[in-house]
Amino acid sequence: NTYSLQSRSGSLMMILICLICVAVCVVANSAFPNVDTTARPSTIKESTALLSADIADMLQNYNFFDSTSSLNPVNWPVDLFDYDNQTNTVMIKGSYNSSVEIIPSFLIISEVSVTVNLIVAAGDPLHPNSSLRVSLAKFEVSGTWTVGNISFSLTITKRSDGLDLAGSANPSTVPVNLFLAELGESIVSTDGFNLDGLVNFSLRQTKCVAFYSKANGYSISLSGIRTISDWPSVEWTALLQRLVGQKPVLTMTAIVPSFSLAALVERFMGIDISDVPVLGTLRLVASGLVISSDKVTSMLLPSNSELLSKIPLFQKGVAIVARMSLFSEGDAVPYSIYLHQRMVIFEAINGSLCFTSNQLLNTLFPDNDLSSIMLPPGVNGALNISTCGFSYDKDEKLISIVVAMPGNANLLADVLSVSDLILTLNVPIAAPGKLAVSGSGSWMIGSENVSVVIEKTPEGNGIFVRASADRLAIGVLLTQFQAVLFPENLDTILRSSGFDSFEILNSVMRLTVISGKSDIQLYLSGTANIAGWTGARLSSVLVRKGEPKVFFMATGFELANANFSSILYQLTGLDVTGIAVLDQAMKVAVVVSPQSFRNISLQDDVFSKMPITRGLSVVSTFEFPADCAGDLLCTLGKTILGSGTDIQLRSNILSAKEFILTVGLTNGSTSGASLKLHVSNTTCIGIAADWSRNAYAPVLNSDREHSNSIDNIAATMNAAIAEELRKLNVLSSSAVNPVKWPVNFFSYDCDTKTVTIRGSSASTVPVIPSLMTLSDVSAEVNLTVVTGEPARPDSSLDLLLAGFEVSGTWTVGGIQFGLTITKDNELLSVTGTANESFVSVDGFLAAVSDVKLIPDGVLSASAGLRAISLRQAVFSAFYSNATGYTISLSGIPSISGWESAKLTMLLQRLTGQSPVVTMIAIFPSFSVSDLVKQLMEIDLSVILFIDSLKLKEVGLVISSDKVTSLPVFSNSDLLANVELFPKGVTIVTRLSLVAMGTAEPYLIHIEQGKIRFEAINGSFCLNVGQLLNILFPDNDLSSTVFLPGLGDVFAISTCEFSYDGGNETISFVVTIAESVDLLEDILTISDLLLRVDVPLAAPGNVAVSGSGNLTIGSTKVSVTIEKTSEGNGFSVRAFADRLSIDKILTQFEAGLLPAELETILRRSGFDKFEILNSAIQLTVTSGETDIELYLSGIANIAEWTGARLSSVLVRKETPKVSFMAAGFELVNTNFASIVHQLTGFDVAGIAVLHQAMKIAIVISPHSLPNVSLQGDMVSQLPIKEGLSVVSTFKLPADCDGDLLCTLVKTILGSGTDIQLRSNILSAKKFVITIGLASGSLSVASLKLQVSNTTCTGIAADWSRNAYASLLRGDRQSNSIEEIAATMNKATAEVLLKLNVLSSSVFNPVKWPV
Length: 1409
Fold this sequence. Notes:
Helices cover 15% and strands 44% of the residues.
C-alpha cells in the first residue's frame, strides 16, 4: 500500500514533496508512533484506526450495506490515505474488486470504491506526540451503474433509514422508455390521460438521484431537460418509486412558467373547461406539474421545488401546483389542482386560505342569484361553512364542493343525529341553483358508532340516508326509535323465542327524510342470529306515520334448510307435525309486523313480494316428493301445481290460536289458485284448495297431475267413500259420471268437520234428455269426517257422504242460467238463477216447449201476459228417468200493477204424457174484479158482492192443462191447499162470505168466460140459502123449486159457485149425502150432486142438473139428472158397464116375455142375459103417472153376441102394469135359425131364409101403439104383443129353381133390398111377410104361413100392387107355365098342352102370373 501525504499550499510544496518522498518514507515510523510498522494498515478500518480507534470501531459497526461483513466497506483494501493540513482533513479511499448489489435484483454497481473523510479537530497527524482528536466527516461509496448502454456514476451515502444515491448519466441524454425497459419495470395504464408520452421521451443533461431502504423500498429520480412542442424547455424529473409490496409508480414533475389552466387541462386530459366560469380563463404563474401513473402516498425522495413540496401526496394522473387568485379581493395563494380521469380537483394548500361555499359560488356564478338554494333538513347551513377545495366533473359538467359540518347534524328530530358529517355539494354549471348534496358521517345508535352516507333527493326537499354497522342489538335499535316490533297477539311467544334480544351483523340502514313530512320509512338489512337460527338474512323497515311519533318495525328473516313445521311451532306454539310436506328441509322467510302497511315492502328479493301485514308472515320454498305415498296434501299439491318445480308455502299469522298456510307456485301469485291450510290450537288442520279459476295457469307445469278425479281424491282419504260416490252418479247417466271429472277444489273445515271436493268437465253435459244440457259444469261432494284428520296421512279417516251436487250453465233462448243439481234416490233437483236482468217468459217457453201457456183468444190481448218478462229470475226443476220432469222459472213480473207479485212459470212433462205449461203468480193484495177484468175482460161489477171484494193475498194459476203438485213450487200456503188445478185460469184467495166471518181459502177458476168459486176446505162451505142471500140480497128465492120430489135444498151445504159471463148466470153445486127417491119404486138416487144455474136477470128461474148413483141389483149405475126447461120435471140418464136383465126386471117389478112364448124364450135365455155399456133415459113430469124408461146397450144372448139392445120399461097407472119391450138388432145371421130358436118352427128348407142378413127382434108382453124403440131397424117395428122379427137381405142372381126366390123376383125384381117381417104370437103358427125394405108390406107381398105341422103355406097377390111405382124395372114377368115348371116340369107341360082356349095364339098358361 502507498500512503500519500499531500499539501495544498502550492506547486512549490508539490515539488518539495516529490523531492523528499524517500525521506518521508524513512521517517514514517517515527511520525506515527501508534502504527505497527511491521504490519502496515491494509483496510479502511485499519487506516482509520491510525487516527482514531473509536471511529474505526464505529465504522466497523456501521455496516454500510447492512449485509455480511465481507461487504462492509471498512474491510476493503486501502488505495489512498490523504491528509490536507490546510483543511485539517484526512481522506482515506479503498476499493472493491467485485460488483455490489445496492438494490436487490435492481441496482448493481461496479468499479466500486469507498471514501472516508475525517476532520482533525486537534493535534497534528504529522507529529507523533501530538494528541489527536478526530471526527468523521463523510463515509461514502461510489461506483458505476450500467443500464443498457447508459452508465451512471453514483455516489452512495447512508442515513439512518437507508441509502442515498446521486450521480450523472453518461451519455447525458437518457431515453426514459429504454431505461425502464432495461430495468424490466412495467408501468400501469394512465387511464386515458394525454401525457404526451409518459415514458416515450428523453432527458438531456440527465442526473440521477435515488434512495433505497430495505424496509420501505426504493425511489430513483432522473432529472434533465425535456422539450415539448409549444412549451419552453424546462427541467423535468422522472421519478420511479417502488415501495415494498407495491407495484412501481412513475411520476413526472416539472416547473413550468405562466400558463392557462384551461390549456393545461386540455393538453393532459383532453377536457375543455374554457366554458367553466372563472376557471376557464384562469392563468397560472410558475406552476408545478406532476404526472403520476398511480397514487403516491409517501415520497422517499423529497421534491426540490417549493411548490411541489407543499403537496403531501400525489394522486394518480396529473396534478398542478400553482398560485391562483380566485377571489377578486384576495392575493394569489397556492392551490393543488388534480386532473384525474374526468375530474379537475382544486384544493387550497394552506388551510388558512380556505373559503365558504357561498363565496365560491358567488365568484363562479356572479350572474346567478343562489340565495334560494334549498338544502336538506339538518344541513341547511352548509353553504356558510369554510371549505378548502372544490372539483369540476367534465362529464357531468358540475362543480363539487366538500364541506365538513361542525358538531352534530340533526337530520331527523329525535331519530337521526349525525356527527363528523362531510358533505359534497354538486353544482351544475348550467343551472347552479339545482345544487345536489351528498355526504358521510357517524350516527350513534346506543353505544355503536354507525357509518352514515347521505344524498339530497332530486326534489331538494329531503335526503337519502344509508347507514352501516358491523353489529347492532335489536333491543338498542327498538329503544333508539321507541319502536314496536311485535303483533299484540304474538308478543309473548315471540319474546320467549328471543325476537327481542338478537344481534344484527353487517347491518345496512336506508332512510329518506323529507322536509315537512312526518311519515318515515327506515329500511334495515343484515344477518341475524336468533332463536337458534344462525346466519338468518334480515330485512326490516321501521315505519312512522304522522303523530304520535311511534315507529312500527316490520322485520323479515330468511332461513336456509329449515324445518317448516318446527319453525311454526317455535313461532306460534301450534303443532303442524305429521304433515309430510312441512317436515322436510326448505328455505323459509319470516316477516313479523305489528301493523299492516300498504304500498310498503321489505327491500330484499326474498321479501319484496311479501306484503307487510299485521302478524307473522311466513314464506318458504320446497319441492314435492316423487311419490306422495297416500299423502292427501301432497296429492292435492301435485294436482294443482305439478311436480318438479319450486313450491311456495305462505302464511299470515295473527295470533297463536290459528293461522292460514297457503301452498302455491314460487313464480306465481298465490291469490289466484293455491292450497291453503287452516291451522288452529285445536290441533285440527283445515284445508282449502281452489284452482278452478287459476290466475297463474300460464306458469303451471305440464306435469301437474290435473287428471286426478273426484273419486281418486276421495279414495286418497277413504276407498269405501270413493266407491259410494261412483255408485251414486248424480246425473243418472252411464256415460257421464261427475265423480270422474278432474278436481279443481278441495277443502276441509275443522269447525263443521266437512270435506268439500269440486271438479269440472270441459265438455257439455246432458241433464234432462232433449231439454237441458249444461256447459261450464262442475261437481261438488261434501263429506263429514267422523274420525281422523285429512291433513295427516297417518290418520285413519272415517267419512260419511253429506252431499253431492253438480252445477253449470244452461243456455236456453239466448238466456244463461247458473244451475245446481242434487239427487235424492232417483230424483234430480235443479235450482239456479238467470244471469240476465230480465228474462222473457215467451222466449223461455218457446225455447223449451211447443206448448202455449195461453192459446189465442183465451185471455184478453191487453192483459200483458204475452210479452211478460221476469226480473230477478230463479230457476228450479225436478227430473227422473221414470216420471219425467217439471221445471219452473220465478221472478218479479213486468206487468203493470203486478210489481209486488212473485210469478212462477212451470213446464211439466211426465213420462208418457203431453207437456203442461202453468203460470203461478202470488199477489200481496188485489181486487178479484179488477184481476178478472184484466185477464178475461169479464165485468163482475154486475155481482155486487164480488165487485166489492178487496183481497189481501191472491194466487193466480194459468195452466194449459190440468196440473197437480204445485206446492213444491208455489211456496204459498194458499196454493198448497189445492190438490188439482184445472186447465185455464185459476185464482186462489181468502174470502169472507159471511158477515163478520173469517176469511177462508177459495179457488176461483176462469175458463171461456166462466168463473167458478170453490171453497178449498169443505168446512168453510155455506148452505144454499146463505149463498143465495149473499149473491142476490135483493131477491126472495125461498120458494124456489129445484127438483120435484127433492125436498128442502136451502139447508144443503154448497162449497162452490160460478159465474158465466156469456149468459150472466150464477151457478153452484150441492151434494146430497142421503139417497133421494125421485120416482117412487123406480128412481132412488144416492150421492146426488146437483148444479143450480141462477140467471142474474131472473133469479127465480133456476136451472138444475146433477149426477148420482142408481143401484140396480148390486150394480151401481152412474146417473145424470137435468131439470126440464119448463121447470115441471126432469130428465134422467144413467150409464153402466154391465147390467143383468133379470135384475132390472126385478128392480122395476116388470115383465118382458109374452105369455104364449115365455117357455121357449126362457129356454133361449131371454130372461137372464147381460147388457153391456148400458144407457138408461127417463123423463119425469110433475102430475104424470105413466113412466117410460128407455134402456139401450149391447146384449150377449143365446148364441148371439154383440146384439144391439133397445128397450123401454113402461109403468102405467091405469091399468096398473109394469112391463118391458126389448128390441135386438143382429147382423150377418141366419133367419131360419133365429126363427127356429125363437119359436121351434123348422123353416130350414126355405133357401132364402138361410142366407146372412140383418135381423131385428122385438119382444113385448103387451102392445104399445104410440111408443117406438130407438134403433135403425127396431124403430121400424111397432111394439106388439108377442115376438116381432124383421130382416133385410138381397136375392141371389140365380134362383136355381127355388120357387120363393122366383116368386119374389117376379113380384119385386132382383138387385134390391128385400125385407122379411113377422109377428109371432104363439108357438103354433105365424106368418112371414116378404116385401121391399123401402115399401109398406101391407098392400102386396109374399106371405109364408108357418105352423107346427111343418107345412109352410104361401100367399102372393100383386094384382093390385099399391107400390108398383116403387118396383124395379128388372122384375121378372114369369108366366103361369114358368111358375108351374119351377115346381114340376111335367105339370107345366100338361098345362101347356091343355090350352083352355084351344087357340094357337092365346094360351092362358103363357099369361104373366
